[in-house]
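Render this sequence as a predicted structure.
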Amino acid sequence: MTQARADRLYLGWQYATPYPAPGPPPRRPTPPEHERLGPDWAAAQRREENLLNRPLQAAFAAVVVIGAVAVVLGAVGRLPVLVAGLVVIVCLLVAAVCGYALWQGERALRSRMAEERSRVGKIRAAQESELFAWQAEHAARVREWQALRVAYESQKRWYGVCVPGSVHRVDVAGGTLSGWSAMLTTAAAHRLAAGAEVTVLDLSEGSVALDLVAFARQSGVEPLVRVLPEDLPGLDLGRGLGARDLADVLSQVVGATAEQGSTRDLAFDNAILDRVIEVLGGTATVGAVAAALRTLAQVGNPREDVAAGLISSAQSDRLVAMFGRGAADRVVVERAWVLESQLRKLAAVGTAPAPAPPSALRVLAVGRHAGPVEAKVLATYLVVTLTQALRGARQPRPWQQTLFVLGADQLRGDTLDRLADACETTGTGLVLAYRSIPQHVRQRLGRGNAVVAYMRLGNAEDAKAAAEQLGTEHRFVLSQLTETIGLSVTDTTAGSYTSTTGSTSSLAASWSASEGTSSGTGRSRAGHGVLPLSSASRSTQAGDSRSTGESESVSAGITASTAWGITTSRAAGDSESLASALQRSREFLVEQHELQQLPASAMIVSYAGPGGRQVVLADANPGIGGLGVATLLPLEECGRPPVASGAPTQAPEHRAARRPDEDRPPPNLGPPPPRLDWRRHRGGH
């Protein structure tokens, strides 16, 4: 397989056959029926000549008989000698004339026969020359057919679909849990192999990153996994923030359950939280802020929070006396009640952090046991704190840090905007996956310099909107492998995440780094977060290109450890099944009902290219990379072959050159087939 480029994000594989099927071999030229002098024609000519000569022959015979009779009569004296002699002379003259006429007729017949033989000989020579030309052309056609057959049988069928280098964000609209698992494994595995660091925020509650985690462990790397709310004590995202930053973060988290686009209470909440955190000393924890809000809202017994060490008695007294009485007091109490009801779900954040070695793969997931409101709060807290950690960071190269947010449609539009802006300004790669396309998501799909990928859209309105945006003029060819494997990998995930011990404090520090040093700390990042897939694939520098063996290690790891890889390898277990899987299934146009029934791993990728908007059908199945007919090289980077001269077997637009990654000589086709000698098949004629 071609080596993966470190500056590319691979989304899947495009099915294409640049070399079309050559069809059956060229038919051997059939020798024409050679011309020859027909015996019937010669007999007819002889018969006609005899019919024409019959009067002359009769006259000749008559005069011969008359002459003979005259001689006999003259000899016996019955006829005078003079008369007999005169009769004989006349008969001789008549016989000479008739004989000459008969000889002339025979001569003309022989001349016609000779001319006919000459004509037949010329035609036979022309036919033989034409047959030899046909045989030479057939030999050329056979050689070209052999070359096309070898090219067709040995060509790649799957080509990498990657994000252009200038793109910093990918929006994935629609999809199933299994489809997201395929997309995530394909994209993240090659980023890890390129030495990048990958963070996955799984808000889908479907354990989408299980295949990716299995691949990392198969590669000898232990990923860092956190499942919330169970692992909130070990999560220290947001710890150590200043008073102003913490107030900003918590005010955004509180608005997670508000209506989309509503910012009515954001400033008010920020003002309350800013004052509360100032009372707590400026470096408060989320649990302390929640305790202070309970005191301010007069909820529960403040002494219990004082006894738990969340706040002190002096801080409790200051909070009680902070706001005046009357109408303002009632407004503050009501709002503090709302703030506390949201933030209490985050009270355990960072209460029991434990150090852990850094990992190139970090998975933060909202567990299935979280309620609807709690899930929204947890999701918003993760995104907002990561956005805060991104500020001021600079990446040495594009997609060096890659963030996947699965289930991003649960987030508010302003939260998505802040995250996207932070990733764009810092050079961090961002992949946002939306299960559905609500209005606030529809307004942001493809905004800016982004790639949009549409997967299966079960909702009719979502599918209709996607078809209108893509354009219904596009026609795609679906592979049999895409349809069969998509049915084999189910939508439900039987397993669940297993949390790992330790802290995620390295997450913020890695994003704060710029060209090897951490912003504001001066700590070196050399060697931080590199995924050692194999001894042959380790790189001494973050910018080193990976070898072909590394790509093979990625494919081998995916094939051995993921559901997609195992299913794909079984489907292509023998040559017969592989040949069946590599066939085209059907063609379809971009229409609403087609988008509603796309295979699980299929995606339609749309992005702006140098030649205009590009729309490509891709298969996100990571197991395809393990097939011998797959290459990471994009289809547009593969050349086309020159047209063989004098060989009209295929149209010129169907030729394709050997790909640059195939540094091998052309196949040895052997000598041309022997020229057909028609004389050996026609009984010697």
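Summary. Residues 104 and 450 are 99 Å apart (CA to CA). Residues 502-547, 641-685 have pLDDT under 50 and may be disordered.
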